[in-house]
Amino acid sequence: MFIALCSVTSVRAQGRSEDEIKRIQDAKVAIITNRLNLTPEQSTGFWPIYNEYSQKRREIHREQRMIINNKKALVKTDNQVMNNLKEVQDLRQKELDLEKEYQGRFLKVISASQVIELYKAERTFNDMLIQRLKQR
C-alpha cells in the first residue's frame, strides 16, 4: 500500500505537464464525487476538508520517499539504518493519526458509509492510475 501511494503521489516528480496533473486530479474528483454521491451541501463542506487532508498526506509521503530514496546511499551503519526505519515508522504513525483526525472531520459532513466509499474510491483511483503508468 505504501509503495502504491508513493507511486501515485510521485506523479508530479515524473515530469508531468501541468495539464496532465490537472486531468489526473479532475479524474480523481470525478471518481470520488460519483462514488460518494455527494449532495450539493455535502460537496461544499467535503472538498475543502478533503483537499487539506490530501495535501498533508502528500507531504508525509514526500518525507517517506526522501528518507528511503535519498538516505539509502548515505547509510553505512546499522544504527543509521535503524534510525531511518524509525523515521519511516514515525511517518506511518503520523499518517494513521492524520487519517483518524480527518475521518472525524469527514463524519461531520458525510455519513460513515460515504467515508468507506471514499476510501474505496481512492483505492480504485490509485489502482487505475498505477495501471495507466505501467502501460506507458
TrEMBL record:
Superkingdom of the organism of origin: Bacteria
Entry protein name: Sensor of ECF-type sigma factor
Organism: Dyadobacter flavalbus
